[in-house]
Amino acid sequence: MAMDSAPEAAYTSTTAHLAAVAERQERIRRTLEGGLAQDRRRRVREGVITSSLFLAAAISVLTTAGIIYTLGIETFHFFQRVSIVDFLTDTQWTPLFTEKHFGIAPLAVATLLVSSIAMLVSLPLGLLAAIGLAEYLPLRLARVIKPILEILAGVPTVVYGYFALLFVTPLLQRFIPNLQVFNALSAGLVMGIMILPLVASLSQDAMLAVPQSLREAAYALGATKLEVVWRVILPASLSGIVASFILAVSRAVGETMIVVIAMGNTPRLSFNPLEQMQAMTAYIVQVSLGDTPHGTLEYQTIFAVGATLFLITMVLNLLSFRLLRRFREIYQ
Amino acid sequence: MTAPTTEHRHIVVPPGSVALRIENLSVWYAAYQAIRDISMVIPERSITAIIGPSGCGKSTLLRALNRLHDTTPGARVEGHVWRNGVDLYAPTTDPVWVRRHIGMIFQRPNPFPKSIFENVAFGLRVNGYRGTVVERVEQALRAAALWDEVKDKLHTSALALSGGQQQRLCIARALAVKPEILLMDEPCSALDPVATMRIEDLMRELAKSYTIVIVTHNMQQASRVSDYTAFMLAGEDRIGELIEYAPTREIFLRPRDRRTEDYITGRIG
């Protein structure tokens, strides 16, 4: 028996054990009663933290609700005076003229045209950059290049606007003589460069989230690097990549300064990217800066346009979040 | 008893034909050396087990045999691995070619997020196989003892299979490209005992036509399935070395090295 060989040690360990049990019982009793000042102080502190966190969350939710409310109520007034059929089918947008037309098409087409050009630039370049960063470049080089790429995202959009108007357009005019001073092409190209880091960065994250074990499995089967990227990494990260594209589209659709400065302010229904046209955001800026009286029909048009824009970006964002969630479900 | 030096190590050269001859192999991860100066001969159509405590470099050694370290940034390999007179580490040897002949099964089942069929067909597709893919897929699934369980759901996701089934799918995937050697990195460590038994039976079956090298820290598994056993241990400098290599019976019944005996009797590791 242990007692025989070391009675003293056994004695002290038993006492220590009993003391530990007693202390634990005491602690349980105190917690159950909850009457100690320390516990009360902690509860108060926890309460303060919880409610301030709740407040912070509530502010953003309330702001969103407020925006939706304002948009909704003014849009509702607008559609009481203008039929929704006219809004969707009329091919002219002239609320500021004597002969008023309220067809959203010229603005919507301009926005979609410039966003499409931007996506044509940013999708292939962004995806290639992402593949390079995630799979090909040495880690150390990728760590240097990624922040540089992300600086692009930090350039103020007004700078991009003037870059498009004063540099890209004159440059393009050398090759395309009939390019107008304000046009969708240069605005779209520059917008594409602006959202490039968003596509590259999010797509790269999606590719890096593909488990290393899948890469090794493919290599071990005799796949080359290109085959690993093309047949394993891209399919496995597809929903993440698509989500990044959709986020980029919604960013492009909502972009304002570039289109205001470089694409013009004439609402014309045209599919020709060489001509000037007016995007939805540009129209809102135009009316907001003018002296349109509060409560008039002209004033309400910007809410109708804003609500349309809001709907488009919201649908795109929801779609993107759904895809991202599906992507996470596969690997976690 | 003095600690044996390199000259006194008990490393046998198995008789019969040679699948791989490993010569003075060392591996570094950046500045840190993982294994040092390993030389051994892997006999053909047999199962060679590599055992040893965690961190002794047994997986590192295994991954050097199909040049998988080439895909890890910072990893560096020195030494030679000979197969039929070709040095796998010669500058002229294409690592992709090496991996097409030496398949690998990983610790955790890692099927692609594709259908069962596409998982097995993957290796055929990247190798530009010109025959009937369907046939080879069935053949591989049968060889991996998985066909009967999946033949009615070949086009459903491989991720829906159980862990043991996924691991057998990974074996089928490796077999489909007809490798000559199979490397298995603790293939049963994520599986339950029943699934483990099935994989072990399968390994015995496969050893009739393939050379298998298996890393395991389960000594019972090594003694059950393998013909030869290599014991690795990291010294005080934490660099893994080959301590003893002999037929499995010898290692377990009459270990020559004191450290091998300590390990297999459970005194270390």
Number of strands of chain A: 0
Number of domains of chain A: 3
Q: What's the shape of chain B?
A: globular
Instruction: Briefly note the CATH topology name of the domain at 6-105 and 182-264 in chain B.
Output: Rossmann fold
Provide the residue-averaged pLDDT of chain B. 90
Q: Strand-residue fraction of chain B?
A: 25-35%
Spell the H/E element sequence of chain A: HHHHHHHHHHHHH
Radius of gyration of chain A, in Å, reads: 30 Å
Q: How would you sum up the major sheet of chain B? A: 7 strands, mixed
CATH class of the largest domain in chain A: Mainly Alpha
Low-confidence stretches of chain B: 1-7
H and E string of chain B: EEEEHEEHEHHHHEHEHEEHH
Work out the largest interface and the residue count of each chain: A-B, 21 and 27 residues
Distinct helical segment count of chain A: 13
The CATH architecture assignment of the largest domain in chain A turns out to be Orthogonal Bundle
What do you see in this structure?
The complex is a heterodimer of chains A (332) and B (269). Chain A is an all-alpha fold. Chain A has 3 domains: 1-33; 36-81; 85-331, MetI-like (MetI-like fold). Helices cover 80% and strands 0% of the residues of chain A. Chain A is built from 13 helices and no strands. Chain A has helices spanning 2-5, 7-33, 37-81, 84-89, 105-136, 139-154, 157-175, 184-208, 212-220, 225-254, 257-262, 280-289, 297-331. In chain A, helix 8 packs across helix 10. The radius of gyration of chain A is 30 Å and the shape is flat. Chain A starts with a helix and ends with a helix. With 269 residues, chain B is α/β, with parallel strands linked by helices. Chain B has a domain at 6-105 and 182-264: P-loop containing nucleotide triphosphate hydrolases (Rossmann fold). Chain B contains 10 helices and 11 strands. Chain B has helices at 58-65, 95-101, 116-126, 133-143, 147-150, 163-176, 193-206, 219-225, 248-253, 258-264, and strands spanning 10-11, 18-29, 32-43, 47-51, 75-83, 86-87, 102-105, 181-185, 211-215, 228-234, 240-247. Chain B is globular and about 55 Å long. The model of chain B is unreliable at 1-7 (pLDDT under 50). Classes of the chains: A mainly alpha (332), B alpha/beta (269). Chain A binds chain B through residues 138-139, 211, 213-224, 227, 231-232, 235-236, 330, and chain B through 66, 68, 71, 73, 96-97, 99-100, 103-104, 106, 108, 110-114, 122-123, 125-127, 159, 170, 173-174, 177.
